[in-house]
Amino acid sequence: MSAGGPPLLSHHLWAERTNRCLMTLERALLLLRLDNDLPDSEIELNRRLYFCLLTASRELYPEDDIAPVMECNNQPDPDDAARIARAQKRPDFQWIYLDRYESDPHRSSKQFVVECKRLGASSSSAWVFNVNYVNHGVSRFRDPQWAYGQRFPNGAMVGYWQSMDAAEVLNEINDESQRTSLPHLILLGMWNPGAVSRLEHILDRPIEVSPFRLHHLWIDLRHQPGSPR
């Protein structure tokens, strides 16, 4: 097969889809922040983000007919056992598309996976947001029982940044990452107060594909438009 054959085209299609997902996600988070009456809970924030994603998709890519889906189970892989644990797990969002260049039709369904978590000070010692961002967010892209983004080279996490300074949040997350043998998050560029800040790191995983690039988009919800500072 030539160097310019289907595998290369499949790689380019994934790269293009990843970029669209990240651009749509960032735009949707900015739209979400315009809401003057945002809830605190992750479930309600995710619900509102879903409708912002639909708006952002039509705004940025009006000819694209692939929509995000919310709380959809991990899609089965041909090598999965019928009742494998990962098949019962539900990432917060996925974009699912058919890769027309994939040589194996059973592997032609591709998913870009997004998981969302709250960031900042917690009201309960039983559920610490910044620690759970790692243990119930990042780790799901590495743990075979969850295997978010299995077979794919990257995915994303959303951080609903509700309180605390950026450096404090990042330090707590990186402390927990180090404790659980995960790499530190790296800030890309500068912090963007009142907007979206981007971070990333690369995970070594015991599942295909590894290494895996995890993109992080943190939306600053500490001071919503129209709220007192």
Reconstruct the topology from this structure.
Blueprint: H1 6-33, H2 42-60, E1 68-70, E2 93-98, E3 109-119, H3 129-135, E4 154-161, H4 166-179, E5 186-188, E6 196-203, E7 212-220
Parallel strand pairs: 3-4, 4-7
Antiparallel strand pairs: 1-2, 2-3, 5-6, 6-7
Can you tell me about this structure?
The chain is α/β, with parallel strands linked by helices. It has one domain. The chain is 30% helix and 21% strand. Strand 5 and strand 6 form a beta hairpin. Helix 3 crosses helix 4.
Features:
229 residues, alpha/beta, seven-stranded mixed sheet, 7 strands, globular
Please give the largest β-sheet: 7 strands, mixed
Q: How much beta, percentage-wise?
A: 15-25%
What radius of gyration results from the CA coordinates? 18 Å
Q: Average pLDDT across residues?
A: 94
Instruction: State the separation between the terminal residues, measured CA to CA.
Output: 61 Å
Oligomeric form of this entry? single chain
- Sketch the topology as an H/E string, one letter per element: HHEEEHEHEEE
List low-pLDDT spans.
none
- Give the helix/strand class: alpha/beta
Instruction: Tell me the count of domains.
Output: 1
Total helices: the number is 4
Count of individual beta strands: 7
**Helical content class:** 25-40%
Strand order of the largest sheet: 1-2-3-4-7-6-5
Shape: globular
Short description:
The chain has 229 residues and is an alpha/beta fold.
